[in-house]
Structures are given as C-alpha cells and as structure tokens.
Design brief:
Layout lengths: L6 E6 L3 H11 L4 E8 L4 H8 L4 E3 L2 H9 L4 E4 H6 L3 E4 L5 H12 L2 E4 L11 E2 L1 H8 L4 E4 L2 H19 L1 H5 L2 E6 H4 L9 E6 L1
Parallel strand pairs: 1-2, 1-5, 2-3, 3-4, 5-6, 6-8, 7-8
Antiparallel strand pairs: 9-10
Amino acid sequence: MSLTRAIRVAVNGYGVIGKRVADAVVQQDDMELAGVADISADWRPRIAMKKGFRLFGATEEHASAMRNAGLDIAGNLDDLLGASDLVVDCTPKRIAAVNVEIYRKKDIKFIVQGGEKHEVTGHSFVAEASYSSALYRDSTRVVSCNTTSIVRTLTGTVNLSASGQGRARGLRSGYLKMGDLAPHLHRGPSQLAIMVR
C-alpha cells in the first residue's frame, strides 16, 4: 500500500505514556503528529510546547485554563480529532473507555492502553502474537508492559519447543509473581517469566 501523505496522529493525554508516544510519532517517516491534548497547565504541556507540538485542551474549559496559564493552545480535543486520522489515547485508566465513544462518533481510528479492558476495542495487540489480526482494524488496545514481556518470553519458549530445540536443551518456563516477593509493589501484579535449563 502506497501512502500519498503521512498519517496524522493525535495523542490524547501527555503524561508518562503520551510523551513517549508523541516523541515516537515525530520520528516516523510515514506519520505526522497532529498535536497533543491534555487537561493540565503544569510542566508537561510546557515541554510539548518547547518541542513545537501543537497543544489542545481536552475540553474547552481545559483549553481556556491552559491559555490563562500562558500556554499557546490551538483548540480543544474536537479540533485535534478533526485534524487527525488516528488518535492514541494515553489518558489514565478508565478514562479512555469513556473517550472511545467520542472517537466512534467522530469515526476516527483509535488505540487505547493496557489499563483499559479488552472489551473496549475487542482486540489486544502484542506484536509477537497479534500483529496480523491488528491490520485494518479501526481500534486496538496495546497491552501492558508486563503482559508484553510475558507474551514475548512464552512465544519464544513455544517456538523453541515446537522446533524441538526447547526439549533438546531442556528449556522450561516458570512464572513468578513479583508481588509475592516484594510487598511494596502494590500496583501489581508485576510478573516475570523465567527461563531455566
């Protein structure tokens, strides 16, 4: 498929995940960052502004508050979506589940993060396991980093076992719940797949 123009990507939520997504988008030859939307007027959107990213308020009220705080705001989320082909929703857990109704009404493709339930999109993406089923979808959910690491490790184990190499070398996989070892990791379960001979 030949693209005549770059895909215009909106990032909704400019926190820990959103700033990384925005930085990744601007590095792609076939994508263009349409802008980032947020609710905050703190240091995060100021960094986006310094990087030359177009800023939008999640709502008109947020846009107004951001303008009053000295930020150069291009509009609200509706304006950003109108200038985009796809939105990557990087808002906190359970907020994207509400936002997807906006995206569906606007008929815009969207990606949500692992904090949302699978049912929000009906598809969960991990490159090793579901790349081909993600093609041509209108939406997907990128699973958490914990789930991604487990799928990557287990996919490798299954592939080695299927080829006979896993059994020949005595590979086994184990599963350790880090929360069992470190009670202070209360946001778990943090998981780790372990390979042993």
